[in-house]
Amino acid sequence: MAQPAGDFDASRYFRGSGDLGFYNVGTSVMRGLARSIHMKYRDVWTVDDALAFAETLIADRHLEVKSVGIEVLARYRREFGPALLPIWKRWLARNLSANWATTDAMCGALIGPLMVAHPGLGPRLRVWSRDRNMWVRRASIVGLIPRARKGESLDLVYEIAKRLHADREDLIQKAVGWGLREAGKTDPARLERYLRANGASIPRTTLRYAIERFPEATRRTLLVATRKSQGSTFKSQVSRLKSQSSRSKKADED
Question: Which of 89, 154, 177, 219 is the Cys-Cys partner for 206 at CB 3.0 to 4.6 Å?
């Protein structure tokens, strides 16, 4: 199924993904292959068999191979249970996802459906947001998007977003913006209040992603309002430093 890459340099699109390989096979082809595998073995395999299959493929260096494993396992979502979550976290922590696309596929096809079926697992992602591994941190919020789209777990989405605002990785900043945007679809007023209240701590990349679904006039207003908030914070810090310096100088004179 492999195709010539042509002029497209996938490694630039998936920067920072190490030794990631590509067969240049389209998404529809991969999903068709996953569907045919499932059709062949659906009367024989359990979710544990599908998990073993996916665990073998996720370790392959090629993006498309990882994707087929995820797609096959996703077809057993009705049998997903809480015991799968630590296994998927291990895949992320060991860099088996290796890139944002595979991480997001895991979140959309595996972690997200598990969160929908077992909402009590959601708080575990709070811990993921502090993990040293970037893919685990990204999954901490992207894994909640299926629930956010239903207007569920919004408190947790906002809490994790706030935890991640200080993260310097742009792939985290974009993911947080994406999560906030999805949360805002069911309650835009809450998202606007959150952005105004936390503008000083929100990276501009996150902010721009978060406001994409607002009307243009609201987007412009929020961009200005949060920038002013950042400026006010800076002025406040300068004023505080000047005050401390003045007190120190007076103490020296005394």
Answer: 177
